[in-house]
Automatic annotation (TrEMBL), chain A:
Residues 2-148 form the UBC core domain. InterPro entries: UBC (IPR000608), UBQ-conjugating_AS (IPR023313), UBQ-conjugating_enzyme/RWD (IPR016135). Pfam families: UQ_con (PF00179). Keywords: ATP-binding, Nucleotide-binding, Transferase, Ubl conjugation pathway. It is an enzyme of class 2 (transferase). This is E2 ubiquitin-conjugating enzyme. Belongs to the ubiquitin-conjugating enzyme family. It comes from Nadsonia fulvescens var. elongata DSM 6958.
Automatic annotation (TrEMBL), chain B:
Residues 1-47 are annotated as: Disordered. Keywords: Metal-binding, Repeat, Transferase, Ubl conjugation pathway, Zinc, Zinc-finger. GO terms for biological process: protein ubiquitination. GO terms for molecular function: ubiquitin protein ligase activity; zinc ion binding. Residues 139-353, 143-192 form the RING-type domain. SMART domains: IBR (SM00647). Its EC number is 2.3.2.31. It holds the Pfam family Ariadne. This is RBR-type E3 ubiquitin transferase. The lineage of its organism: Eukaryota, Fungi, Dikarya, Ascomycota, Saccharomycotina. It catalyses: [E2 ubiquitin-conjugating enzyme]-S-ubiquitinyl-L-cysteine + [acceptor protein]-L-lysine = [E2 ubiquitin-conjugating enzyme]-L-cysteine + [acceptor protein]-N(6)-ubiquitinyl-L-lysine. The keyword Repeat applies.
């Protein structure tokens, strides 16, 4: 099956005009499957980490959002143990006008601004609320251990 | 049946007189103005499908109206037309607004009068005469969704001024309708745009099948928004029933209704028709019978109760000297009396008539009695439920028999119809009997319950006799047709009697229950 023009254009642009701190490369044997690396944003507990993600463009893309998941272990209230991400633009607020690059930027922003009030990993969110300083330390430790 | 002969031409629901005010008082999400009383150009002026009129209505019947899908569409359409004539917005826009306001037309009009801009923006509509238009792409245009840039391709421009190519819009809306099953959130695909794609645009975009699905979905959301309309719960039945029974009335009536396809069900709880049992009791009963029945049966068959603390005890070996694990009471398994008083007569109890052991047995009997009472009703309930299932098999036989009657005995088709009609009466009577046992279980004993139980056993006896008549072979049935018809009309009458008496008691609040609900 031929790849839709939209996906080809997006892939080309990701290569020719990459987003700083974000790298996305399609697999050779499956052009809908991307290996993604996101740098932890500066002045966040994830600073200095390189986080690996996998991204898949489903059959109905761009009518439906890409499927995306963290592969690197991360301590974050909106990302669970399996790496699944709680982000509005990946669910109800998806619009075909959004792109791979905008979604990855949203995820990078999520790393800079964790939202424990809308948690996916309940234990992490609770820890974040109870003692933010301690939680940030744990996140830094995890970053050092798994993402460097 | 005559219950649903609709030959009236006056205002229905005459004992309801539901003005909008009285409704708004009790249930604020019911905007009934669109089809309330007959004097405001109501959507419901088709007398033919009204339920029985109040003065001919039996006490156990409830006013209701069967609605087909077309009726429902008509109601929606008349709500749209009404609002259209007041607000002078395009019908498309009105339809979207009504969906956002859960089809509460009054609410919409009120809010719109207060602050039209706010209503429009929160509902995702724009006050423009045209809500969408097709156009041809200028050179150099690239669709932002599919990145196609074929010259002169067809574009759709929505009221919000966002545009994309036609095939992307088609794909987008079909995907939303088919995969997400939504009729509501069909918004402009552009990021953060809340403009709702209007019905008429969807109609020209998608295939007819998808459009029908879209209409069904929006009909569903309409029915959901009405407390007075419910879908028929039967599988694959797409008709609905409107009934104005309110929650508090469910304590004194059983709102049995019949849909346009002839399925009868309870409007209160959407289960099968369960006359004469109240919805709340049905719920309690089903819960109890699901949780308890097998356990209760087993306990009854395999255990005895400690005469002191009533803990059920299973004797799985050993001698008759029992020691209750719960309260440490020691007793004899045979006579249930205190073990200490057995003296030297160990392992050989012959004290059955002793005063002490008699007392112990009486103490037990109270709690056993309630278990046995439950099982008494449950077994009869379960029996009729099973028989009702077996009736289905009998029914197939009845159909075969009526064919035989037509072929071999030369009975006409019409003449042979008595069999399937009688069968329906039998089936209905069984259902009533079944629920009458659940009902009786929760009744406090009094002289009225004695009459009720007499009616019940009378019906039960007749039902079994009728059931037996169906077992006869075809030629015998033809010979004894009169007997069968007599029995049938008797069963029918007894059934009416039973539910009528029960309904009288309900509406007069004569029944006393052993539970609070």
């Amino acid at each position: 099956m031929s790849l839709p023009k939209r996906i080809i254009k997006e892939t080309e642009r990701l290569v020719s005009d990459p987003v700083p701190g974000i790298n996305a490369e399609p697999h050779d044997d499956n052009l809908r499957y991307f290996n993604v690396t996101i740098d932890g944003p500066s002045s966040s507990p994830y600073e200095g980490g390189k986080f690996k993600l996998e991204l898949f463009l489903p059959e109905d893309y761009p009518m439906v959002a890409p499927k995306i998941r963290f592969l690197t272990k991360i301590y974050h209230p909106n990302i669970d143990r399996l790496g699944r991400i709680c982000l509005d633009v990946l669910k109800a607020n998806w619009s075909p006008a959004l792109q791979i690059r905008t979604i990855l930027l949203s995820i990078q922003a999520l790393l800079g601004a964790p939202n424990p009030d809308d948690p996916l990993a309940n234990d992490v969110a609770q820890a974040w609320k109870d003692n933010e300083v301690e939680a940030v330390k744990t996140a830094q430790a995890w970053t050092k251990e798994f993402a460097v | 049946m005559s219950d649903f002969d609709y030959n009236d031409n006056e205002a229905p629901y005459s004992d309801f007189e539901f003005s909008d005010q009285s409704f708004d008082d009790t249930e604020d999400n019911n905007d009934e103005i669109g089809y309330s009383s007959t004097d405001d150009g109501s959507a419901f002026d088709d007398d033919d499908i009204y339920g029985p009129r109040a003065d001919t209505r039996k006490i156990y019947e409830t006013d209701h109206k069967a609605l087909t899908k077309t009726d429902l569409f008509d109601i929606c359409q008349s709500l749209i037309d009404d609002a259209h004539s007041i607000l002078s917005l395009p019908k498309d826009t009105i339809a979207t607004l009504l969906q956002t306001f859960n089809w509460r037309r009054d609410n919409l009009i009120e809010r719109y009068m207060e602050d039209p801009d706010k209503v429009l923006s929160t509902s995702g509509v724009i006050d423009k005469p045209t809500t969408f238009q097709f156009e041809t792409a200028e050179s150099g245009y690239m669709c932002y969704i599919c990145c196609e840039d074929t010259p002169n391709m067809e574009l759709l421009r929505l009221g919000c001024n966002h545009r994309a190519c036609r095939s992307c819009f088609k794909y987008y809306t079909e995907q939303k309708i088919n995969e997400e099953g939504t009729s509501k959130d069909l918004r402009c695909p552009n990021e953060n745009c809340t403009f709702v794609i209007p019905d008429s645009a969807i109609k020209v975009l998608v295939t007819i099948d998808v459009y029908n699905k879209y209409k069904d979905l929006s009909l569903k959301s309409f029915v959901r928004s009405r407390n007075s309309i419910k879908w028929c719960p039967y599988p694959d039945c797409d008709s609905a029933v409107e009934c104005l029974v309110r929650d508090y009335e469910l304590k004194t009536t059983v709102p049995s209704v019949t849909c346009a396809n002839g399925h009868s069900f309870c409007f209160g709880c959407s289960l099968e028709d369960h006359q004469p049992c109240l919805c709340a009791l049905v719920k309690l009963w089903l819960q109890k019978s699901q949780d308890d029945s097998e356990t209760a049966n087993w306990i009854k068959a395999n255990t005895k109760e400690c005469s002191k603390c009533h803990a059920p005890i299973e004797k799985n070996g050993g001698c008759n000297h029992m020691k209750c694990k719960t309260c440490r009471h020691e007793f004899c398994w045979i006579c249930m009396g205190d073990w200490i008083k057995h003296g030297q007569a160990y392992y050989n109890c012959s004290r059955y008539d002793d005063k002490d052991s008699k007392e112990s047995r009486e103490a037990i009997s109270d709690s056993r009695h309630s278990l046995e009472r439950y099982l008494h009703y449950f077994n009869r309930y379960a029996n009729h439920e099973q028989s009702a299932r077996l009736d289905k098999k009998t029914y197939i036989m009845v159909v075969k028999k009526s064919k035989v009657l037509q072929e071999s005995i030369g009975m006409s088709w019409i003449q042979a119809q008595f069999l399937s009609q009688s069968f329906k009466i039998l089936h209905q009577a069984r259902k009533t009997l079944k629920w009458s046992y659940a009902f009786a279980y929760y009744l406090e004993k009094s002289h009225v319950t004695t009459i009720f139980e007499d009616n019940q056993s009378d019906l039960e006896f007749a039902v079994e006799q009728l059931s037996e008549l169906f077992e006869m072979d075809a030629s015998e049935i033809a010979d004894r047709k009169v007997q069968l018809l007599d029995k049938c009309s008797y069963v029918g009458k007894r059934r009416i009697k039973l539910i009528e008496e029960a309904a009288k008691g309900l509406s007069a609040e004569e029944w006393k229950y052993v539970v609070d609900f």
